Amino acid sequence: MKHLLIAGGGIAGASAAYFAARSGWAVTLLDAGEGRASDVPAALLNPVRGQSGKVEALSLAGLRFTFALIRELEAAGHAVPHAQSGVQRPVPDEKTRRKWVANLPAELPHRWHDPAGLPPGWHSVLEIPEGGWVSGAALVRALVAASGARVMRGRVATVMASGAVLDGGEILCADRVLCCGGSFGGEGGTHRAGSLLLLNKAPTQPVSFGAYLSPAIHGGVLGATFEAPAESHAEALALGLPLKSLDWLLCKGAALSGLSGVEVAGHWTGVRLSPLDCGRDESGVWHLSGLGSKGFLLGPLLAQGVVEQLGLPI
What we know:
six-stranded mixed beta sheet; 31% strand; FAD/NAD(P)-binding domain
């Protein structure tokens, strides 16, 4: 049996462990146990990205793949709190709506309706029936448990095609190595911190424009702020949640729901890395990292694709 070493236990690494184990690999998952943006309390699964209304390649396929994976895990007895209850995307004016209409692919199920129930100031609402939310931490845990992978705590100091050297000097050997460390284990790229406010109440359906409101396992979340790019995970995390970001986030939340009677119970911060790094480098090491805000939308689908290539001759 061939041995796969995966560095990084977030959504990319956990998904790869799951698909590799199903394909007959013996999997060791090396996870530092900290810095995982994938532990987000509620990840929005929404193929219509940003305020431009664009739908990137693979987004719809990734959306369907992730929800199918969740159902597969639950059928096997792994609890993954989620809801494919649709996502509402309000737009502020006719010009924005026309831009979104031009960007929406015909194959994406959607419908437009009046902004009933939202605070004043919205022109109309795009509803994406196949969208929804998932507990990121629960999905990652379920994937790792279902994979049966050997999980080790540690951080990579040096990585190579035949294995890795850990910070403490321990050497791990493998037939293939896949790096999925994201911002915590990645170098270069853009590291950006984002925060969620944990709320005692949440909408029954996620709503998003600029920020997003979503249900969670307990109450709901309002997120996310993205700070200036930093050169490392530590530098991005040190920014915390500045007051100007908190003000921006609360204003966005009020525009989406009014936040009447809602109490803030805490906050969560993670750091994401971009751009995407997916494939094998010149040294023979495989990578799936830099998913940015699309970790749960594209991570499982891309992980399956990478695993399918691992057994091919180098």
